[in-house]
Amino acid sequence: MKNYVIRRILLMIPVMIGISIIVFSLIHLMPGNPYAYLIESDARAEDVESMLQAIGYYDPLPVQYVKWVGGLMQGNLGYSIKFKEPIADMIGRRIGNTLMLSGVALLLSILVAIPLGVISATRQYSVFDYVATIIAFIGLSIPAFFFALLLVKFFAIDLKLFPISGMETLASGYTGMKKFIDLAYHLALPVIVLSFIQMASFMRYTRTALLEVIQQDYIRTARAKGVSERVVVYKHALRNALIPVVTIISLSLGQLISGAVLTETIFVWPGMGTLIFQAVMNRDYPVIMDATMVLAFMILMANLFADIMYALVDPRIRYK
C-alpha cells in the first residue's frame, strides 16, 4: 500500500504541470491588457510602460510561466489586480468555507442515501421503491442551478424560511451557539442543493449493489439455513454491497468540490467558487490562475483519497 500511495502521488506531478500549462495558456490567449484596471486614465504613457515592464508584462511567455510556477511552489501567489491584496490571503479566507459546504453536503447525502437505497432494495417494486426511484431520477436529471433557483424562490422569497444568500446575518454580532445556528441557517439551502444531487446518485448505486448481492448463492444458502432476513441483509449482504458504494462516494469528492463552485455563486457563499466568479467578472487574471490551480489540487487530492479507499475496501485492487 505504501508504494501504491507513493506512485499515485508521483502521478499527480505531471498532471498538475499539464493543468498549469493549460490554465496559463488559456489566460494569456484572452485579448486585452489585464492590468488596465491599475492604470489611471490621466497616467502618462511613459509611466504606464515603466510599470508594465517592472511587473514583467513584456517578458516572454515561457519566462512568465516559470516565474508564476516558481512563485506557486514558494507559496508566493502574487497580488490581486482588482482588490490589490495578497491572493494567498484571499484564498485562505475562502477555502475553509468551500470545504465546509462540500463536507456537510457529502455527510448529509451519505446519511440519507444509503438507508434509502437499502430500504428500496429490500422492498423492490413496492410503493416506497417507486417513489424513491422517481425522486432519484429527478435528482439526477435536474440541473443544479435550476434546483437552486427553485429553492430560493419557494423557501427564501415566498416562505421566507431561509436567507437568500451569504454566510451570516449582517451586523448581527452573534457569538457562540447563536453564531453556529445562524451559520446553519445560511448553510441550509446550498447544502440541500449539493447533497440532493449526490444523494440521488448514492441511493441508486446502493440499491443496485444490494440487489445484485442478495441474488448471490451464499445469500440463498444463508436463507436456506434459516438465518433471519435482517441478519442476511444487514450482516451478510450489505457489507459486500457497500464496497462499490464506498468507491463511488470517494470518486464523487472531486465532482462535489467542482459543483460547489456554481452553488456558491448562486447563494453568494464566500468560498472558492465565488472568488473565481468575481475574478472572472473583473478579469483578475492572477486570481483566476491561482484559484483554479488550488481547486485543481483539491480535486486531485480527492481523487487520490478515492484511489486509496478503493484499494482499502477491495484488496484485489493494487497499482501495477
Describe this structure in words.
With 320 residues, the protein is an all-alpha fold. The chain contains eleven helices and no strands. The chain has helices at 2-29, 45-54, 61-73, 87-122, 127-141, 144-158, 176-213, 217-224, 229-267, 272-281, 285-313. Helix 1 (2-29) runs antiparallel to helix 11 (285-313), helix 5 (127-141) crosses helix 7 (176-213) and helix 6 (144-158) crosses helix 9 (229-267). The termini are close together.
Secondary structure elements and pairings:
Elements: H1 2-29, H2 45-54, H3 61-73, H4 87-122, H5 127-141, H6 144-158, H7 176-213, H8 217-224, H9 229-267, H10 272-281, H11 285-313
Provide the residue-averaged pLDDT. Answer: 83
Beta-strand level of the residues, as a percent range? under 5%
Task: Please report the total strand number as a whole number.
Answer: 0
Query: What is the radius of gyration computed over CA atoms, rounded to a whole number of angstroms?
Result: 25 Å
Count of helix runs: 11
Task: Describe the sheet with the most strands.
Answer: none
In sequence order, what are the helices and strands, one letter per element?
Answer: HHHHHHHHHHH
Low-confidence stretches: none
Overall geometry comes to: globular
The structural class is mainly alpha
- State the separation between the terminal residues, measured CA to CA: 11 Å
Helical residue percent band:
over 70%
